[in-house]
Amino acid sequence: MVATIDQRIAASIDGDFVLFLIGARINKWWKPHLYIPVGLAMRRMIAELESQRDLGLLHVESWGGRSAIMVQYWRSFEHLHAYARNRDAEHMPAWVEFHRKIGMSGDVGIWHETYLVRAGEYEAIYANMPEFGLAKAAGWVPAEGGRATAAGRLGKTDGSDSPAQVPEMPGPGDRGAVQDQ
């Protein structure tokens, strides 16, 4: 069972960070000999990054299917770039192999997007969720006071700018602060 946090929480991270989206799309499902190695290579990369936190990966969330997507949070672009270019790490050999076996054949598509996020220029809200996304990558705080609204979390208001009254949520005495689902 995954423990949920039964309150509104906001992600909280010190300093800049990188949001890196990466994915693959199976264009020709009848060629598993081409797309299965892509998925296995990504598993090896993530295992390496999770076992060596000094490489800079903070957290990863992923979803599979014909179009797979992975959301990665990195400490800095320098960490991400160094890992991508490191010939002794899992990424570079996998990148070379992909281009050798698949290249521009159209059999398997790959993509990524990189976003450099400056300190204080993000906001995230979660309610009745397990630790997830940026909150799991960096930490979280209750979404109250100055963090009660999106504009407040961005530092644009004092958090009292809610367009509607948020109903009072049950507290720890009612259902418990953390529930197993």
SSE layout:
Layout: E1 3-11, E2 17-26, H1 32-51, E3 57-63, E4 67-74, H2 77-85, H3 91-101, E5 108-117, E6 125-129, H4 133-138, E7 140-142, H5 150-153, H6 172-175, E8 178-180
Helix pairs in contact: 1-3
What does this structure look like?
With 181 residues, this protein is α+β, with helices and mostly antiparallel strands. It has 6 helices and 8 strands, in the order ββαββααββαβααβ. Strands 1, 6, 7 and 8 form a 4-stranded antiparallel beta sheet that branches. A 4-stranded antiparallel beta sheet has the order 3-4-2-5. α1 runs antiparallel to α3 (91-101). The longest helix is centred in the N-terminal third of the chain and has 20 residues, at 32-51. It is elongated, with a radius of gyration of 20 Å. Residues 175-181 have low confidence and may be disordered.
CATH topology of the largest domain: Alpha-Beta Plaits
- Tell me the total number of β-strands: 8
Helical fraction = 25-40%
Instruction: Return Rg in Å.
Output: 20 Å
Q: What does the average pLDDT come to?
A: 92
CATH architecture of the largest domain: 2-Layer Sandwich
Largest sheet: 4 strands, antiparallel
Structural class: alpha+beta
CATH class of the largest domain: Alpha Beta
Q: Enumerate how many helices there are, as a single number.
A: 6
Number of domains: 2
Low-confidence stretches: 175-181
* N-to-C series of helices and strands: EEHEEHHEEHEHHE
Shape: elongated
Query: Terminal Cα separation, in Å?
Result: 6 Å
Determine the strand fraction and express it as a percent band.
25-35%
